[in-house]
Amino acid sequence: MLTLEKPNATRSPELPDTPAKPPKLLDRMREAIRVRRYSLATERNYIQWAKRYIYFHGKRHPAEMGAAEVEAFLSDLATARNVSASTQNQAMHALLFLYRDVLDTNLPWLDGITRAKVSKRLPSVLTVAETLALLRKLPDDTNGLIVRLLYGTGMRIKECLRLRVKDIDFARRQVAIREGKGGKDRMTMLPDALVPALEAHLVERRRWHDIDLATQHADVELPAAIDRKYPRAAIEWAWQYVFAAPGYSTCPRTGAYRRHHWCERNIQRAVKAAANAAAIPKLVHPHTLRHSFATHLLESGSDIRTVQELLGHSDVSTTMIYTHVLNRGARGVTSPLDRIAA
User: Fold this and answer.
1) Structural domain boundaries of the chain?
2) What is the CATH number of domain 25-112?
3) Annotated catalytic residue 156
4) Given pLDDT bands bounded at 50, 70 and 90, which one contains residue 165?
5) 265 FRET partner, CA 20 to 30 A, in 4, 22, 285, 308?
6) 154 neighbors 298 (Cβ within 8 angstroms)
7) How would residue 4 be classed by pLDDT, with cut points 50, 70 and 90?
8) pTM for the full model?
9) What is the pLDDT of residues 204-259, one digit of tens each?
10) Is 46 a catalytic residue?
11) Residue 217 is among the residues annotated as catalytic for this protein
């Protein structure tokens, strides 16, 4: 049976399909950064440099600008802002990424941009006595354990904070560092002195994980494609962060509400407080412990190739900088003043 439409009924007109708005420039830049698997810190830095560049030129679109505008912006950073050479180069790399990988712009003027020359500075290194004094002033908590692990293994702070439970091998006294600087994996030693404290920490950390499972907050951020290959890996104990945050937070990239790793700023504050309490007359930060680790190994007779491998340096020339404190070779000569005084 056919149903006739009422004469007075009005059909709603079909609206034409509205074209989707193209993504904004900075959103395109974020997407390009994430496709290349750059870190969140790199993403934030590149985005803020792109914003500063656009505002510096009166909100002009970067596609309308080129070499002259980039050069003017970088020159202003060096002259008016008095930034360091490394900061200026970071801004330059962000803008080059914007033009090359986001706007897909040919850069024939790249060679004409003046690059700031970064000064080669010697690292600040603690003596063995200063290191011992620093470690004694650390609190007996998670911050203290992390700082001791930084010195005992030579890890970078972010490498330490991103450690997973599966990366620690107590039987072999080894720590696996995954996707370190340059995306490289390597192994380093696990100091015997830290084994009891680290085992006790993992017992408490497992209790937290059980709570997270019960409240459905146990999923953790995973490396690329792991979640597709192993669907349950995000909630498994082996993939959890060794040093997890005490509370939950929202992931700025995915929006997931879960437990992230320990905050880097906590470690920086702990090191600074311990250095002040130990009255160490040097600028001390977490990376100083990595410099001290390498220097103390060389002082004790370790082979420089071994130290290079432990630090994850691609070139031994990078490791050679730590020989500046060793009383060997040309630096081992006696001052002429000391010979006269004698």
Assistant:
1) 25-112, 128-323
2) 1.10.150.130
3) yes
4) very high
5) 308
6) no
7) very low
8) 0.79
9) 999 999 999 999 999 998 887 787 888 888 999 999 999 999 999 998 888 889 99
10) no
11) no
Catalytic residue among 164, 290, 291, 296: 290
From 46, 99, 241, 322, the catalytic residue: 322
Residues 109, 66: contact at Cβ < 8 Å? yes
The helix/strand/coil state of 325 is: helix
Is 253 known to be catalytic? no
- 120 catalytic residue (yes or no): no
Token pair in block for residue 82: 């008095």
Q: Is 36 a catalytic residue?
A: no
CB atoms within 10 A of CB 89: 16
- Cα dihedral value 21, 27, 32, 37, nearest 10: -130
pLDDT band at 5 (very low <50, low <70, confident <90, very high): very low
According to the model, what pLDDT value does residue 7 have? Answer: 45
Which region among 75-84, 89-98, 256-265 has the lowest average model confidence (pLDDT)?
A: 75-84
Backbone angles phi, psi at 154, to 5 degrees: 80, 15
29 SS3 class: helix
Mean pLDDT over each residue of the chain, to the nearest integer: 86
Catalytic choice (57, 181, 217, 285): 181
Least confident of 85-94, 153-162, 219-228, 284-293: 219-228
C-alpha 4/C-alpha 22 separation (Å) is: 44
Active-site position among 30, 148, 156, 260: 156
d(CA 326, CA 224): 42
Side chain identity at 181, as an amino acid letter? K
Q: Catalytic one among 52, 201, 217, 287?
A: 287
**239 in Cβ contact with 165 (< 8 Å):** yes
- Is the CB of residue 187 less than 8 Å from the CB of residue 176? yes
Q: Which residues pair with 259 in a beta bridge?
A: 248
